[in-house]
Structure formats: structure tokens, C-alpha cells
Specification:
Blueprint (H helix, E strand, L loop, with lengths): L14 H20 L3 E2 L5 E3 H7 L5 H6 L1 E4 L5 E4 L4 H10 L8 E10 L11 E10 L4 H17 L5 E7 L3 H16 L7 H9 L1 H4 L5 H7 L11 H16 L5 E2 L11 E9 L7 E7 L3 H4 L7 E7 H8 L2 H4 L5 E5 L2 H16 L4 E3 L6 H10 L4 E5 L1 H5 L2 E6 L11 E5 L3 H9 L1
Bound molecules: adenosine-5'-triphosphate (ATP) and magnesium ion (MG).
Protein name: Histidine--tRNA ligase
Family: Belongs to the class-II aminoacyl-tRNA synthetase family.
Keywords: Aminoacyl-tRNA synthetase, ATP-binding, Cytoplasm, Ligase, Nucleotide-binding, Protein biosynthesis
């Protein structure tokens, strides 16, 4: 019998990593509720048509990356490749906009049939935010700041916010024609993918990863030259608001984003530490989507962060921030009883306690205690138990505390112990 393995690009989240994920999710929960967002959870499977209409048939996602299948009832279904279309569908279906603008967040697995590599999987996870029914440029700045501050709260540094304006539909249509002409004059110099895109989705060529096409595009007409006065003013206002919020940004006039429904603001947050999968957060304004799905006119803006990329960037820091308060070390049968007893009492006092069960030598247990990044070790040996005692040792110092870092307690003195630990 052959051993079964996971499918390519589908990844197990093993115990060693799950703590980091939980930490990020708990920061998200706090951060988003402080910003007045509510969570929405939609199904993982939707009708294929939702994504054809909501993402656009000429995009990579719809054209090449979706997991489509027919269910037993003959319905065409798709494992969701992103969250926005489902959230928009749900808002329309349940008439949520009757209660006013929606400020929502979501999280969960997404599916895209791509070539797996570091930071790129076939099942991956996103955390996303959507402001639906808000047109003001202030909401663009607020949505961006929620994403930016969240990544900072997780401990990420060296991030770059790249910003562009895609203008209104009219601006973009004029630009598309100019760009098509320009590209057609250089047809033979383009890579094959870009050649195919000229007539269906010329804007996407600006986002090409092909090096010679990229070089050629330095000379291409820029969307920024085709923005109407209103679109320009709007973009200036956004930049002013971000300056006001002390969020640094870089204008990237080639930033177009992969999905069809964006207008005006488009942005990405990137990091140099991610190799070629540099984007950790991508988002923008999508004023036409809700009405495209049969809802009212509802200008909207949102972003999605790739959890796997965020976790790569957060590195070990995110694991250590959740280290236990106490690591309990013991040897011998009587010591074991007391160890379990103390562990349970400390946990009842809301302390995080890890109990070593190995029975190995004290030095080995100390090594593990150190690795766990616990602040304190409680040490119980047979001899100490016989005297009704145990000891506590400080493993690491935040401040430069001087003096003794080892304390002896009697087994009845749990209250004093807790007081010491909590101080
Ligand atoms: P990319 O250019 O890297 O393919 P994208 O433009 O297709 O990204 P979006 O649809 O904007 O990505 O999704 C938002 C975020 O979700 C990305 O910035 C990235 O962090 C993450 N993401 C997208 N696709 C994947 C994937 N296959 N595996 C892991 N994370 C992904
Ligand atoms: Mg992609």
C-alpha cells in the first residue's frame, strides 16, 4: 500500500506553526473590532458564475486558476479563489446595505490552481477587510491605515506601501485604447502572454512579470496622464490623508492589480524579504461590483492579506510572543504529583504553564524550558518534595533586574508564588 500524502500546493498547518497563526488571528480580532469592523463568514464553495461576473473572465484567476467542478445536482461550482466576490454576493442577497454602509472583515482558505513555491500555494489563507457603501476618499485612507497598522501590530517592518490611481471607468477606457495602439506597434517585442492580452485585458500587461516586457513598458504611456481632473484631485486628497496619518507610500503608476473590478485607488503592501512573491497585502476600490451583482450602487474599497506570506515575514518573533509564563520541571514520582498540582493551580490563575513530562535529566529539562522562551521555571526534585518545598528560577530578564533570581517556596505558599509571577 502506498502512503497517502496531501495534494500538491495544499499544506498542513503543524502544531509548531499554529501558535503563530493563532497569535496573528487574535491580533486581527482585537485590531478590527477596535476599528468597528464586523466579521462575515461565507461558504467556501459558490456558483462559478459569481466569480465570472465578480472577478472578470479575462483575469488570470478566472482564466487559469479556479477549481471548478460539477456537483451531483449538475451545478457548476467553484472553490472560492478570493473573498470579495462572496462578501459582495452575501451583502446583496441579504440586503445588508439597508442597514447602512458595511464595514466588514473575513478570514479563511482560498483556492487557486497555481505553481506552488515559497509564499504561493493552491490552498492559501487570506484575512481581508471590505468597506461597502462608502465613497469618500477618507474611507480609502482609513481602509489602508487599518491594513498598515495591523501589519505593524503583528510586528512587521520594512514594508512599502505602493499606491496608484486607476481613475474612473471613462479615464480607463480612453487610456486602454491608447495603450492598445502603443502595444500593437510593438507587438513582436512582447512576450506571448502579453500578446494574447492586448485586446482582452491590456491593463494587465502593465503588471507583467516578464523582464523584457517590463523593460519595454518603461516607455509606455502612463495611466496617470489620462486621469480626469476629478480623479486627480481625489488621488491628491488620498495622498494628503496618508501623509496626515504618517503612512509612507510610493507611487507606482504600473500597479494595476489582477482583478477587473477596481477603479480609482489601487494599492499593495510589499516587502523585500519575500523574494519574488513580494506582495503581502493587495487592495483597491471597486465601485461597480455590488451593482454588477444585482445590488444597489454601492462604492466600496477593501484589501486582502496573504496569511502565509505574513507568517513568513513575522518569522519566529510571532511564536515567541506567545511563550509560556512558566515551565515546570520535575523528577521523581512524588515531584510529579506536586508538579501537576501546581500547574493546574497556576492555570486557574490565568497563567500559561507548560509541564515537562519527559522524566529526563534536569539539565535536559532546563534546555527545553529555555527553548520554550518561558519567563520562569518551577523546579521540583524528590529531595525538595520531601521537605515540602519547591523552587522557582527566573529564566530571562526583561529589565536589568539585579539580585537573586531563585526563590524557594513551601508547597502551601501557592498564593505568594502566583503574586510573584504576576508582578
Ligand atoms: P500575486 O501577484 O502574488 O499572484 P495576486 O495579485 O494574485 O498576488 P490578490 O488576489 O490580490 O493576489 O490576493 C491578495 C493577497 O493574497 C496577495 O497579496 C498574497 O499575499 C495572497 N495570495 C494570493 N495568491 C496567493 C497564493 N496562491 N498563495 C499564497 N498567498 C497568495
Ligand atoms: Mg495571483
Amino acid at each position: 500500500m502506498t502512503n497517502l500524502k496531501n495534494l500538491r500546493g495544499m499544506v498542513d498547518l503543524l502544531p509548531a506553526q499554529s501558535r503563530g497563526w493563532q497569535k496573528v488571528e487574535s491580533i486581527a480580532l482585537k485590531h478590527f473590532s477596535r476599528a468597528g469592523l464586523q466579521e462575515i463568514r461565507t461558504p467556501i464553495i459558490e456558483q462559478t458564475e459569481l466569480f465570472l461576473r465578480g472577478i472578470g473572465e479575462n483575469t488570470d484567476v478566472v482564466g487559469k486558476e479556479m477549481y471548478n467542478f460539477q456537483d451531483r445536482g449538475g451545478r457548476l461550482c467553484t472553490l472560492r479563489p478570493e473573498g470579495t466576490a462572496s462578501v459582495a454576493r452575501s451583502i446583496v442577497q441579504h440586503g445588508l446595505l439597508n442597514n447602512g454602509p458595511q464595514r466588514l472583515w473575513y478570514r479563511g482558505p482560498m483556492f487557486r490552481y497555481e505553481r506552488p513555491q515559497a509564499g504561493r500555494q493552491r490552498q492559501f489563507h487570506q484575512i481581508g477587510v471590505e468597506f461597502v457603501g462608502l465613497a469618500s476618499v477618507m474611507s480609502d485612507a482609513e481602509v489602508i491605515s487599518i491594513g498598515w497598522d495591523f501589519l505593524k501590530a503583528v510586528g512587521l517592518n520594512d514594508l512599502t506601501l505602493e499606491l496608484n490611481s486607476l481613475g474612473s471607468n471613462e479615464d480607463r477606457n480612453i487610456f486602454k485604447e491608447k495603450l492598445k495602439d502603443w502595444l500593437n506597434q510593438r507587438f513582436d517585442l512582447l512576450d506571448e502572454d502579453s500578446q494574447k492580452r492586448i485586446n482582452v485585458n491590456p491593463l494587465r500587461i502593465l503588471d507583467s512579470k516578464n523582464n523584457s516586457t517590463k523593460e519595454l513598458l518603461y516607455e509606455a504611456p502612463s495611466l496617470s496622464e489620462f486621469l480626469s481632473k476629478e480623479s486627480k484631485t481625489r488621488f491628491d486628497c488620498l495622498q494628503e490623508s496618508l501623509d496626515n496619518l504618517n503612512i509612507p507610500f510610493k507611487i507606482n503608476t504600473n500597479l494595476v492589480r489582477g482583478l477587473d473590478y477596481y477603479s480609482h485607488t489601487a494599492f499593495e503592501i510589499t516587502s523585500d524579504h519575500l523574494g519574488s512573491q513580494a506582495t503581502v497585502c493587495g487592495g483597491g476600490r471597486y465601485d461597480g461590483l455590488i451593482s454588477e451583482l444585482g445590488g444597489p450602487k454601492a462604492p466600496s474599497i477593501g484589501w486582502a492579506i496573504g496569511m502565509e506570506r505574513l507568517i513568513i515575514l513575522a518569522g519566529d518573533k510571532i511564536l515567541h510572543s506567545e511563550s509560556p509564563d512558566v515551565y515546570v520541571i520535575h523528577r521523581g514520582a512524588n515531584a510529579e504529583k506536586l508538579a501537576l498540582n501546581i500547574t493546574c493551580q497556576l492555570r486557574s490563575a490565568n497563567l500559561t504553564v507548560e509541564l515537562d513530562y519527559s522524566g529526563s535529566s534536569f539539565s535536559k529539562q532546563f534546555k527545553r524550558a529555555d527553548k520554550s522562551m518561558a519567563k520562569w521555571a518551577i523546579v521540583i526534585g524528590e529531595e525538595e518534595v520531601s521537605k515540602g518545598q519547591f523552587s522557582m528560577k527566573k529564566l530571562r530578564d526583561n529589565e536589568n533586574e539585579v539580585g537573586i533570581s531563585q526563590y524557594i517556596f513551601l508547597r502551601e505558599e501557592i498564593d505568594q508564588l502566583i503574586k510573584k509571577l504576576i508582578d
